[in-house]
Specification:
- With about 425 residues, the protein is of the alpha+beta class.
- Helices cover about 45% and strands about 15% of the residues.
- The protein has helices spanning about 75-95, 105-120, 145-160, 170-180, 200-205, 245-260, 265-270, 275, 300-310, 320-335, 335-355, 360-375, 380-395, 400-415, and strands at about 10-15, 20-25, 30-35, 40-45, 65, 70-75, 185, 195-200, 205, 215-220, 220-225, 235-240.
- It is globular, with a radius of gyration of 23 Å.
- It is found in: Cytoplasm, Cytosol; Nucleus.
Length: about 425
């Protein structure tokens, strides 16, 4: 383990958790622990044309595939680099047209099968853990998840049978379960979904609701950085889920997706639950009226829901915050910039209390607010919000990340 990003780490058996990753040296806040290229990945369909299919670079003027005209690349080198994977889909997209509709999980699984056929030796993504060693948790799957797996297997055969030699049905069932349990969502600086990937060495880390590292992405490379000081011998923990919610809710999500209950310090003490679930002092309970709003009137529905919820919950309550976030998203979609700004201002302080230090959720909200302020000609407020986002991202992403450089440039342009 002498390569960059793996020195100072070792795989070990974590008591009560199975495999894990621990430190063999001291890491300071912001230090890079691990840099792992994706073993296999796919760009989400909605981002085609805005990001390179091969390296995920975001830029204008990308060149499209001359055959399918649906995949876009920085240049000829990127197109050639992606051909071994893109060819699985290129002619099929031409043949199926608008009926080409495999899920992102199916697309990713097809690429893993192709990669395993082409590369039989250990890859640069598997210094510590092989894809074949991923947990599948087949025995824990309920009937609904089993049926979804079988639907995905059918889609694999339907969309990819001309270009892939599949393993047998049992092996496909295991692989899909492994992908569902170990896959990662690649996101941009505002936490918008860019694609899906598997990063084997990153998947070795166990979960904690008090994580000491954070995972960010530089194109198709996952980077793991310390958000707490880490001493030799300490286990490395990341978070598998959104940490905004109270203990029981978090553990429901962990049991449903990852089949375990967390026993970290935060779950044991439930220290933040009281503030996260804060309710108003009620006199007469509100009448239980049903809210009936046409589906198209999304903003009105959010506002009516918030109105009703506000008679029970404080603004710091996580379910109020969840609804405010939805309302902010609708405002952004409707280009109601003042409305989006108003919701963002209500969200940011509770987010800063509920989330751990150096949270990407907090950083992305400061980014959204900063850009809204600048668009609304509130220059000083915009710069202040962008600087707060930057302070978090310099630790979480590293000072040399292109997202950090872009935000610094945004700030510089305001001077």
């Amino acid at each position: 383990m002498k390569t960059e990003g793996t020195d100072g780490l070792e795989r070990f058996t974590s008591p009560g958790k199975g495999r894990g990753l621990r430190s063999t040296k001291h890491f300071k806040v912001g230090d890079l622990l691990l840099s792992c290229p994706a073993y296999a990945y796919v760009l989400t369909v909605s981002e085609r044309g805005g990001h390179c299919e091969f390296c995920f670079t975001r830029k204008e003027g990308l060149s499209k595939c001359g055959k399918c005209k649906k995949a876009f690349y920085c240049n000829v080198d990127c197109q050639k680099g992606d051909w071994s994977m893109h060819k699985l889909e290129c002619s099929a997209m031409c043949a199926y047209g608008d009926n080409w509709s495999p899920s992102e999980t199916v697309r990713l699984t097809a690429r893993i099968i192709a990669k395993q056929k082409m590369q039989t030796e250990r890859s640069a993504s598997e210094k510590l853990l092989l894809v074949r060693e991923f947990e599948a948790h087949l025995k824990e799957l309920d009937n609904e998840k089993r049926e979804m797996n079988q639907t995905d297997i059918a889609a694999l055969h339907y969309f990819y049978s001309k270009h892939l030699d599949f393993p047998d049905h049992a092996a496909l069932t295991v692989l899909l379960a492994q992908v569902n349990c170990n896959g990662f969502t690649i996101e941009d600086e505002e936490l918008s979904h860019l694609g899906s990937a598997v990063f084997p060495d990153v998947a070795l880390m166990n979960h904690s609701c008090c994580p000491n590292v954070i995972v960010t992405y530089k194109g198709i490379i996952a980077e793991v950085r310390a958000v707490q000081e880490i001493c030799p011998g300490e286990e490395i923990f990341t978070s598998y889920i959104d940490l905004l919610y109270p203990t029981e809710d978090r553990n429901d999500r962990l049991r449903d997706s990852y089949f375990f209950t967390c026993d970290c310090r935060e779950c044991a003490t439930k220290a933040k639950d009281k503030e996260k679930m804060k309710v108003c002092k009620l006199g007469t309970p509100p009448e239980p009226e049903a809210i009936q709003v046409p589906p198209s009137e999304l903003l009105e529905m959010c506002e009516l829901s918030l109105d009703r919820m506000g008679s029970i919950f404080e603004d710091t309550n996580v379910y109020m915050l969840h609804m405010m976030y939805q309302a902010m998203g609708v405002c952004l979609y409707l280009e109601d910039w003042d409305g989006a700004m108003s919701y963002g201002e209500k969200i940011i302080k509770p987010y800063s209390m509920h989330y751990p230090a150096y949270s990407l959720n907090v950083a992305s909200m400061y980014l959204k607010l900063g850009r809204l302020y600048l668009g609304l000609e509130k220059k000083s407020m915009g710069i202040k919000a962008l600087k707060k986002a930057l302070a978090i991202m310099e630790v979480a992403h590293g000072k040399d990340h292109h997202y950090v450089a872009e935000i610094k440039q945004e700030i510089e342009l305001q001077k």
